[in-house]
Amino acid sequence: MTVATKKAVVLFSGGLDSMLAVRLMQLQGLQVEAINIRTQFACCGKTASDMAAYLGVRLSVVNAGEDYYRVIRNPEFGYGRGANPCVDCRIFMFDIARERMEEVGGDLVVSGEVLGQRPNSQGRRDLERIEVRSGLEGRLLRPLSARLLPETIAEQEGWIVRRQLHAISGRSRKELIRIARELGFSSAHIPAPSTGCMLTQKTFAPRVFDLLSNEQLDREWSYEMLKIGRHIRITDDTKVIVGRREGENEMMEHMARRDDAPSVVLLRPQGYPGPAVMVIGECSDANTQMAGGLLLKYAGRCESPLQVLMSRCGEDTVIDVNRLESAHAAATL
Q1: Angle of CA points 237, 238, 240, to nearest 5°
Q2: Confidence (pTM)
């Protein structure tokens, strides 16, 4: 088999690291297929498709699905500073990449990872662990740091030339940008650093841990709601979400109508500015009144009689605001 018939599956985010990994494999004469594995918590979807087109490679997009929630709930190798199970996440993704490699008759999986770039998943021990646990021992090439790592089977057999690979380590992008320019990347196609995974964010992680502690079912709907509004846990079984802007109010209305939504109560102001408020869990009168109190707390001033539209189980009811006044004073964050 000639080098031209060898095929690499590249784990592709559309960031600079993965773009360089693709280009380096193209320069070595390999056929390249890119795979982008999407989770709810990353932000590289459009970038990946645009950059794959720029590089002239086929891009397969795989949604992580519900299996990914089990990784978040029970990571074997723990969390980073937030709710990010980085090593387990990489094993999960490389396992998918390995399956794709086998489906398309590929010969190796390639990643743009850089030794020491990310402290939670790119230490030397982490890179080795990810390779072994994903079933890719000897078949996972990291061309940006390859000369600092053990040889892969491809290098040993001579269809990847090791001296044409790199020995980059650490968090600086300077060497990556230099290589990109050397390889002919235009400035417009050298992407800025990604904002990364939401699970790493200190303000977002508590919402994830609250969900894991109080809900036993890993529903896609519940994880999507983590990204919307202000979250307030009022009992072990119940939380309230308050919209912070018009777009979030509209999203909450959409989420409440979805077929996979659990039983919720949605409150919306009628004829005056204010947030949508959702009750998730025990939708008792007391909890609904507490949610109504939060709506009034954040509502705009209006002289006309105030009314609230309550949606429950597909039915809408207009509530006189006087029913909620007592809850208004009790509503606290």
Answers
A1: 165
A2: 0.90
